[in-house]
Amino acid sequence: MDSTSQPFGEEQNHLGEKLFPILKICQKINSERDLAALLDLIANEATKLMEADRASLFLLDRERGELWSKVALGSKEIRFDARLGIAGAVALTGQTINVEDAHQDPRFYKEIDLRTGYRTQSLLAIPLRNHEGEIIGTFEVLNKKTGAFGKEDEEILKALAAQAAIAIETAQHVEEMRRHRDQLQEENAQLWKEVEGRFSTQSIIGSSERIHAILRLIDQISNSSVNVLITGESGTGKELAAKAIHYKSLRARKPFVALNCAALPESLVESELFGIERGVATGVERRLGKFEAANGGTLFLDEIGDLSLTAQAKLLRVLQERVVEHVGGRKPIPVDVRTLSATNKNLETEIQKGTFRQDLYYRLKVIHIQMPPLREIQEDIPGLANYLLANYCREMKKEAMNLAPQAASACMNYPWPGNVRELENEMKRLVLSVSGSTIAKEDLSEAMRRSGTEVAPSLSTPRFLKDVVSEIEKRMIQEALQQSKQNQLHAAKALGLSRHGLIKKMKRYNIRFRDS
Ligand SMILES: Nc1ncnc2c1ncn2[C@@H]1O[C@H](COP(=O)(O)OP(=O)(O)OP(=O)(O)O)[C@@H](O)[C@H]1O
Ligand SMILES: [Mg+2]
To answer: Same domain, yes or no, for 23 and 96?
Structure first.
């Protein structure tokens, strides 16, 4: 027997009697946000209210065209084709179906009774609709204790279903948001791992004592927030070291904000560093300064040696007082910022010239890290070059490449005025231009190929004589070893030294015996 909603007269009183329990149930279901618990709750309450033996809620999975039920009191999750059974017919047509004996109805899907071992007799099924009127599932009550379900039961179940559908949809949204949040949290944790890996000390390549000492120092200061000054020639990895310090520190999950002091015009220094209040007259928008942006984290002041004296005075004040004031504002804003500064200038010379404040220098340089130029960590050149080659090959999806021993030794002899950045550019060029997997000396740029035979150190800047002599000596030894194919006796002879004398000098200059 199918039935659609019809007006009802004397039964209205009975429905009135049921209104209070329905309201109580609504209160309960509106405070349950967990979908499985909510479905359980609705089914339990409906069973009692309808004097039925069981209640089931089937939700429509539109993507898979299936109906599924987490609770079919006493049984586990069930899934089936949404076109099947009385539940399917209700979900598809939106009709109410009320039958006295389900097994006599051709639409009844006997499989479920078989699976659950339950015997369905009377059955009342109505659609669950969301607030937009869309069908989201089917609500069934089974085996009314006093026989068959009547018109009044239909109306009661509809009233309950209207509330249940809203609660179910809300719980589904909450569940989806939770899933989304968990996924984001997982992604976030993954990304942090990647960031920390990429910028940690692992990204600083080198096994020379100079590099090891830097890595040890970064480790030692990882628990503190002392200011660090990083000096070194262009391209020696000052910024790389600054990031490693930040991502190793307790501030790693807070911002790392970089400011290039050289690119900062005098007129913008204050607003860039300290922020600006909205200017009513000028129409300027309110903007945070770098100090506030880095609050809790690290401010990296790059090219600090290029900061004007006026700006230095302002910076010093913030470092002393730990508060900033927006340009055009009068409220001091407390900031907790660690500063890392970098420069390729010699700040002590700048102090003598009167272009850098000594008091600021001491504030910034609680710890000093001097990045060595590549020519002073010659033994790290092949390792660095191969590491960079591997990176670019991976990036450009090329098979792995290596430097032939002669190419590696030419690289070691080249003075690399642009340091690691120049080495990076050369390796990038080689990955693009060389087709085999081995890079020969002939593949290198002209300057590097020549470097094995060139012994002229730069005399353009004033240097101590002993440094120049050492440099010449070192290069001559390397060249002699190369020409003698690493035969120390021949090399010593060519240089007019004893073998013992050569070994002593090789030790002094950290020249290692290599196959070539
Ligand atoms: N020891 C190292 N291991 C791996 N990569 C390095 C190393 N040193 C520098 N690099 C790489 O060389 C490039 C230049 O480094 P970085 O920008 O840190 O140098 P810099 O000293 O800040 O240069 P500049 O003075 O020109 O600003 C970067 O791509 C960096 O990753
Ligand atoms: Mg830099």
So the answer is: yes
